[in-house]
Amino acid sequence: MASLQVEMNDEGVRALLKSAEVQADLKRRADAISSAAGDGFEVEENLTKERARAVVITRTDDAKRAEATGRALTKALDAGR
Amino acid sequence: MTEVIQSADIEQALCDWLSTKLAAYGRSVHVGTLIPNPRPGEFVRVLLVGGQRQRGSRVIDTQTVALEAWAAAEGAACSLALLLEALSLSMPDQDVTGLTVYRVDEFAGPANLPDPESTQSRYTMTLSFTTRASAVEEES
After folding, report:
1. CB–CB of B50 and A75 under 8 A?
2. From B6's CA, which of A7, A9, B77, B86 has a CA 20 to 30 Å away?
């Protein structure tokens, strides 16, 4: 049986995870989740040493309450698919 | 004729099954989709929060559900949440009436999330249930 060996290019993977295309894709998904969640939710983006990140946060007390009581943000996650 | 395939009513199925199983493990608590009024000392809320039909399949369905364990004190809420988690993760190996459960994945495990509207303690978790959808027939 033939065997296959895959060697990851760590530097290349890191570059991919921080690329403009990945950043744009994450932003698009996070914006969609934030919009679906409603008012008071915001997107924060940052670039770590390893990867690009985008998070949706509750900015207002109303948004915090909406998530704590009715799961507004959790229910919006599918908008990011 | 086109076959119409409908997702399982995961909220109802979980309410029924978890209620029976929790009682079997010594925690006879109300399990429902709404917060009961008046609130009992302990209860469980089941909330469907999303999901999707698996790509390439008409019948394999993944539904995401938030489970909340409520109790008067943190310790009781935590132990109820841990039992809920254990029972839910065991579903693929159990006989669940009216529901075929292929797998259960944990999206977010039990977390201490106090309720802002009462003094009750609450632990929550979010799980994905992969189940089989089934055909529905036209009535006429």
Report:
1. yes
2. B86
- Is A75 an 8 Å CB contact of chain B? yes
Angle between helices A20-37 and A61-70 (to 10 degrees): 80
Let me know: does A40 contact A62? Beta carbons within 8 Å: yes
The predicted complex's ipTM stands at 0.78
Q: Are B85 and B125 in contact (CB under 8 A)?
A: yes
Global pTM?
A: 0.87
How far is B86 from B27, CA to CA, in rounded Å? Answer: 13
Say which CATH topology domain B9-134 has.
Answer: STM4215-like (3.30.2000)
For testing contact with chain A, the best of B33, B49, B54, B122 (most A CBs within 10 A): B49
